[in-house]
Amino acid sequence: MMYSLPKALREIGHDTRVMIPKYSSIDSAKFSMTMAKEGLLVPKGDVSAAPENDQMICNVKKFLDPDNGHAVTYLLENEEYYEQRGSVYGYDVDPTRWALLSRGALEFVRTNDEWRPDVIVASDWQGGLIPNYIKTVYKDDPILSKIATAFSIHNLYFQGMFDHRFTSEMDYDDGQSGIPPIGDPRMSKVNFMRRGIRYADVINTVSPNYAREITTPEYGELLENLLQWSRMRQTSYPFNPTVKNLSTLIEDNMAILLQTAGSKDIKLQYSVPENIDVFVDINMFQTIVRNLVSNAIKFTGTGQEVALIAQKLNENEATISVRDTGIGMPKEVLENLFMLNTISNRPGTEGEPSSGLGLIICKEFVEKHGGTLWAESEEGKGSLFSFTIPIHDTQKNKKK
Fold this sequence. Notes:
Largest sheet: 5 strands, mixed
Number of helices: 12
Shape: elongated
Order of helices and strands: HEEEEHHEHEHEHHEHEEHEEHHEEH
Number of strands: 14
Radius of gyration: 25 Å
Distance between the termini: 57 Å
Structural class: alpha/beta
Helix content: 25-40%
Low-confidence stretches: 394-400
């Protein structure tokens, strides 16, 4: 990534440069460097103009690669995090080291008059804070706020220095809260990958197949909803409706959902007439059903019930409802349920994490089909989510 991509971009005329930590394992005698910035002050916390005692002192050195067209590599030098800890990985403060590189790179760009990029490419969880810093801490900075970010994902499984599948409610990072100061122990619980996806202007992956795979529950590593939301935000989401039997579509989703319900001893029932054909984008429809049923299971306690019921509403529409006997919602949550700026990421009955984006995606997808999604709920008594979907009327089409 740090060699092939910059090389390819330079070959088509772009001035592309790389910034890495100056680990003590890098041989200065072999790689001749010059000082590009001495005494770079890197704020630890959220405020860019931090007091001196809340800043870290770094140097930036410059290496011109004679074997690669004199390509420029900048190296961030810091005694505590890169000199005393000379390897790339293997330290309990690795999240802090990558946060320092992210903040250091941005401060260098902000204070360096010689060269400034139009786009910064950040890779995998290690670079995930760069888009986050730009869109929050530096959102009003006259230089950094104008720089676009591309976030490149090679392996979604690694999201930080913890197991993202087994995170307690207390340690869960929603990706929206403020970034802890550099050196704060909370940095070890920050999900760098989630933040990179949420705040980057563009996201790319290693292949089209991998891009599709990571938006599914099987390979999405609990970030599939966030990735789908990001894709909707950045591009025109493909919409390819086709005629499909409704009962078959529901059946296709139920195998994995029955397993999820069974793990909580929840009784999942469904009732779908066999003679209804719908005109839907299959991927979107499956996402809607999967999200609504998964949410119902998430917010329903052990031994309770979740039911999906489909019926023909009129000659043009069918309605699908998902009812649970779970914890329900207070009125203020219900009123803002589908609003992006008031996302609720309540944990499930067993502490299951929630991004709060699943319902936003469902609403977008239902409306793309010309339908409507609505919710009813009472705290302590459960919830009912319903949506309409267009029917393909075979008899009516024959008459035409």
